[in-house]
Design brief:
alpha+beta, Neuraminidase, six-stranded mixed β-sheet, 15% strand
Length: 1108
């Protein structure tokens, strides 16, 4: 790049009359723009909103709706939101209009390529525009509400303005660049990467020109270079260290930075005194000072972090600190601009900061927007580099970019090589006959400006790969920033290839024939290779089956065709010569890759647009989202009209549903805290995180449907090693799977079994479902399912409680998930305080008396927590300690029996906690009777009138009988579904006649046995649906009233039957008041008929009156 640039005619320098002259080039460009327009607007509303899209769309709508907008660096710059609000104003609010701004930007990016003709030439420009038109990434994200395609447009304008200024030195190009620069900063923080790349190129370009220039003081040249190199290296190293600097302490790199600044100032002095006044003759110097002086204040977060402060600290102290640094940077910026060209800089700064202030303050309605824009934007995203959202490996773009942008990738690589090895030189004398035609094509460009422009494109592409690979956060939408510069460089290379072509010789010497032969020859490759494999394996001529003969015949035919094609192609090569033949082969390859690109683009944008078999579909709303919203709209219209239905939704399903729910005025957000009031709605939406909390309130009144909310592509590439790569290449099956992904986007996991999915659940109240589905929209029989116990509900309030509701604790009288309760003959209340691994005893009035026990896990390595209670005495390690005791019972003599569940044993104590005996050991019987005394997770204990102890050996699916000292007397049950057999027996109770009742949990029934454990009868339980570890029901018998109480833990209620199994009543609901339970497990009845319930997840014992 020389300082003596000459003026060159350009579109903006051409009269309107001359521009109206129509030619083939304008026709081709209009066709491209029309294609780009159709491609970007066709089916714009088909795709469900992604997570991020819904944020952008909704906040834009809030601005349009008069609710204002406050810049938040988490969602990047404000430009997108203002433009989207404008499009809502012009065209209404829906999915399509939300994406119109980016779609139009995608078209503008193609159209703006027209202004690159002075550097790319006619063919090169058309090629670049064409590649941007069909680019999978550029097209996809032009149909996507993200910032990346918008910033690409302003990067293009800035590029054009900068290089046009270098040609003309007209101030209008500086002013346009100032506006474009402000817009880039107002769109997304990748603007900083782009500006660093642009400034870096100008610096290197100037250094080269300075070095070649004539210095008035030659002795300054080497000191200038040394000071600049050392100072620049120190300053840049310090600034990069700021990204990972601890904001809590002063970084020593601040001194390295200051040292670098001093050296840089010294180098500038050496330059100015060495070159004299000629330093200002370079347009690149103008641009360098222009961009740096406007941008410098926005780089303040680097210095703030180096000083040990936090750029996103918005406290009064943080604002003062950041404001001080910002003021210094503004002062330096003003001095730079003022000293360079006061008048021009004031106009440029007015444009730059005028745009910046309007957008970041939302037209002066958000005062803090200036601070969040100047400091917060870069500060926030510097912090995010350490977070590394997505957790992608360093080679992420080496996988993503070639998968989609292989055409510009290969061509830009070819262009870089061609440029760097000097293939762009003028034709040799041997090619004189094509010189006149080539010269005319060359004159379409600006020869002395083409080389620096292409050099910049190569620098841009290379630095993009380096910067985004190094950056901590890697996301698929950033592929836009690869595809854009690669398309420009690739376009230049195609233009050069076109210039190099000797079209007459190609036509006359068989170029067309070679072009046809090569793809045909490629099609014969696979069958010929397969044929030779069969020959080598001895199968080709020995397999006499019809299939074998057919394959052999096909292989021979393919071989014959291949030989003929090779012969023809070789003849064409001899006539054309090596160079022209390579040109033809390259042209065929480019055409083939172009067709493949069109196919990839079509599949991504119009077939798989919201399916995660595409790697660019990331954190995206699934097709289920739009389906569910149509269902909700249909329900609303058929029940209350329009979109007036009342619905509730949580914080785990907010995005992207928040965007679609904006039109529902009666929606209710309950966050992560569902309540009965919040969920009192015909339609309830809940994410997987909150479903367990919401289900108790919803009960059986709702129909439940499971849907996919957001999903992500497979990430099998993480942890990639050379062994895995070589294995994939060598293994035919893995090669086939890889080819299926590349060519068909077909994975070995079907989408309905996709592992990387976040689910949500739609609950529709049964009466609403019945009302809607009576129109034929759904299965009426499903809507008619009702809770058989609902009509027997009684509102029974607890008359007393032990423990503090919802407050776990280990102090005396406090509980942590109590699971069992029993009543002693004298009225004392014995509680299995399961989570605290102890037993607590209270008097009949609920006053705390005593407790014993601590945690001991006998079956864990090292027996953690286990102690020997009496040293050398008769007791053994772990006696009197527990591992989650679930069951407890008291006999007529006041002995306490504890089911020490996960130590798989029974322990016996006095009511004062004195250890008396133990029995049981861990073993599994596989659901068969045998191995007496062995236990697996015993849960409940009952004692008959003779004092015999019965234990539900839950994991072994049986009941064992012992005498009071633990001697084995019998066993009953075993695994099965027929009468007398069990599947997960838990609760166990005995009545005054020594009849036994067993909660046969997973068979969902209560079984009744006589005193000898002969089967009497069973009745079903319409509950106990879950097989979770906490859904363990218990039983109690009120013999005086002839009632059997049955807990339904995850139904949050107690069911009441008579002793014959006839349903009488139910009480309880989900909650924490006196009418409710959080997880009722153990249950007992005292002599007066009062009912004691261990409400485990509310950490309390509730006492109810007898249910009448």
């Amino acid at each position: 790049m020389g300082k003596n640039a000459t003026e060159t005619r350009h579109t903006w320098d051409t009269s309107l009359l001359a521009m109206l002259h129509w030619d083939w080039e304008k026709t081709a460009y209009v066709v491209l723009i029309v294609i780009a327009l159709v491609a970007r607007f066709y089916g714009l509303s088909w795709r469900s909103m992604s997570h991020d899209e819904s944020l952008h769309a909704l906040y834009s709508w809030q601005l349009y709706d008069g609710r204002g907008y406050e810049h938040n660096p988490m969602m990047h710059g404000p430009f997108l939101f203002h433009v989207n609000a404008l499009f809502y104003f012009l065209f209404g609010v829906n999915d399509a209009t939300a994406r119109m701004s980016t779609a139009l930007a995608g078209v503008a990016l193609v159209a703006l390529a027209w202004f690159l003709r002075p550097w790319l030439g006619r063919i090169g420009t058309l090629a670049a525009a064409f590649m941007m038109t069909i680019s999978p990434a550029l097209l996809y994200y032009s149909r996507y509400i993200r910032h990346d395609i918008l910033i690409a447009v302003w990067e293009m304008i800035l590029l054009i303005a900068a290089f046009r200024y270098m040609q003309t030195r007209r101030p209008r190009w500086l002013y346009l660049s100032a506006a474009a620069l402000s817009f880039t900063y107002a769109i997304k923080e990748v603007a900083f990467i782009y500006v660093i790349i642009l400034v870096g190129f100008f610096i290197l370009d100037l250094l080269w020109q300075f070095w070649l220039d004539r210095w008035e003081r030659p002795s300054n040249r080497w000191p200038f270079l040394a000071l600049l190199s050392i100072g620049g290296g120190a300053a840049v190293a310090a600034l990069f260290s700021a990204i990972k600097a601890d904001p809590g302490q002063l970084s020593p790199m601040i001194f390295v930075f200051l040292f670098g600044v001093v050296l840089l100032a010294s180098s500038i002095y050496m330059l100015l005194t060495g070159l004299g006044g000629r330093a200002r003759a370079y347009p690149e110097m103008d641009l360098l000072i222009w961009i740096l002086s406007l941008s410098l204040p926005l780089f303040s977060p680097f210095l703030i972090k180096l000083l040990g402060w936090n750029p996103i600290d918005y406290s009064s102290t943080g604002i003062v600190r950041s404001g001080g640094v910002l003021a210094v940077m503004f002062l330096v910026s003003i001095l730079m601009g003022w000293g360079w060209s006061r008048q021009q800089w004031l106009i440029g700064a007015g444009l730059f900061y005028g745009i910046f202030l309007l957008l970041f303050t939302t037209f002066f309605t958000n005062g803090k927007g200036f601070a969040t824009g100047m400091i917060g934007s870069l500060g926030y995203w510097m912090a995010q580099q350490e977070v590394q959202r997505g957790g992608q490996p360093w080679y992420y773009y080496l996988l993503i970019v070639p998968l989609y942008e292989f055409l510009p990738l290969l061509l830009s690589l070819g262009g870089a090589i061609a440029f760097l090895v000097g293939v762009w030189r003028r034709p040799s004398e041997a090619e004189e006959r094509v010189e006149p035609r080539r010269r005319r094509r060359e004159e379409e460009r600006v020869p002395h400006r083409e080389a620096p422009f292409v050099a910049y494109l190569i620098w841009w592409v290379a630095l993009t790969w380096a910067a985004y690979t190094w950056a901590g956060e890697k996301m698929p939408w950033l592929a836009v920033h690869f595809a854009f510069p690669m398309a420009l460089l690739a376009g230049w290379f195609v233009g050069r290839l076109w210039d190099w072509a000797d079209w007459m010789a190609l036509r006359e010497r068989g170029g067309i024939g070679l072009a046809i032969s090569l793809p045909l020859l490629a099609f014969t490759f696979k069958p010929v290779v397969g044929f030779f494999r069969r020959v080598l394996a001895g199968q080709a001529f020995r397999d006499a089956t019809i299939e074998g003969l057919s394959m052999t015949t096909q292989g021979i035919a393919a071989l014959v065709v291949a030989i003929v094609l090779v012969y023809l192609a070789w003849g064409y090569v001899e006539r054309l010569g090596g160079r022209r033949s390579l040109w033809v082969a390259g042209g065929v390859l480019i055409i083939g890759l172009t067709l493949w690109t069109v196919r990839v683009t079509w599949m991504l944008n119009y077939i798989n647009y919201d399916l995660v078999n595409e790697m660019l579909v990331y954190a995206h709303g699934t097709p289920d989202v739009k389906f569910v919203m149509k269902e909700i709209e249909m329900i609303s219209r058929r029940t209350v009209g329009d979109k007036q239905i009342k619905l509730a939704y949580d914080d785990d399903s907010t995005w992207p549903l928040e965007w679609y729910l904006r039109e529902y005025p009666n929606k209710r957000f309950y966050g992560a805290s569902p309540s009965r009031e919040a969920l009192d709605a015909p339609v309830v939406i809940v994410g997987s995180k909150n479903e367990d909390k919401a289900k108790p309130f919803l009960g059986k009144k709702y129909l439940r449907y499971k849907y996919r909310l957001v999903w992500w592509p497979r990430e099998d590439y993480k942890g990639l090693t050379w062994e895995r790569v070589l294995g994939a290449i060598q293994d035919p099956e893995r090669r086939r799977k890889l080819w299926d992904i590349i060519w068909y986007r077909r994975w070995d996991t079907p989408l309905n079994e996709w592992p990387y999915v976040h689910y949500f659940y739609l609950y529709v109240r049964r009466d609403i479902a019945a009302q809607v589905w009576n129109f034929g929209a759904g299965p009426v029989e499903t809507a008619e399912v009702i809770d058989p116990y609902e009509k027997g509900y009684r509102e029974v309030a607890a008359i007393r409680q032990l423990g503090t509701t919802g407050v776990p604790g280990d102090a005396p009288g406090q509980f942590r998930n109590p699971r069992g309760v029993a009543i002693a003959p004298d009225g004392r209340i014995v509680v299995a305080d399961t989570g605290n691994h102890r037993i607590q005893v209270f008097d009949a009035e609920g006053n705390y008396l005593t407790s014993w026990g601590s945690n001991c896990n006998l079956y864990a390595e090292g027996r953690p927590g286990c102690v020997d209670p009496d040293g050398a005495g008769p007791l053994e390690v772990g006696d009197g300690q527990f591992q989650e005791p679930w069951g407890v019972a008291v006999d007529q003599e006041g002995h306490v029996y504890v089911a020490d569940t996960w130590n798989h044993r029974i322990q016996k104590f006095t009511l004062d906690g004195k250890f008396l005996a133990k029995w049981g050991f861990f073993a599994t019987t596989d659901g068969q009777l045998g191995q007496p005394v062995a236990m697996w997770g015993p849960r409940a204990i009952a004692i008959d009138s003779q004092g015999n102890v019965y234990v539900t050996d839950t994991g072994n699916k049986r009941v064992q009988k012992f005498d009071p000292d633990g001697n084995f007397l019998g066993q009953y049950g075993g695994g099965g579904v027929i009468e007398g057999y069990f599947d997960e027996p838990v609760g166990l109770a005995v009545d005054a006649q020594n009849n036994f009742y067993v909660a046969d949990t997973w068979n969902r029934r209560v079984q009744k046995f006589d005193a000898n454990f002969n089967f009497l009868k069973a009745w079903p339980i319409y509950g106990w649906e879950s097989q979770s570890i906490f859904n363990k029901p218990y039983l109690a018998v009120d013999s005086a009233a002839g009632l059997v109480y049955v807990t339904d833990p995850e139904g949050y209620r107690v069911l009441v039957f008579d002793t014959e199994g006839n349903f009488r009543a139910t009480f309880g609901q989900y909650g924490s008041d006196a009418l409710s339970f959080a997880l009722p497990n153990g249950i007992a009845v005292d002599g007066e008929g009062n009912v004691y319930v261990a409400d485990a997840d509310n950490h309390r014992i509730l006492i109810f009156p007898r249910v009448q």
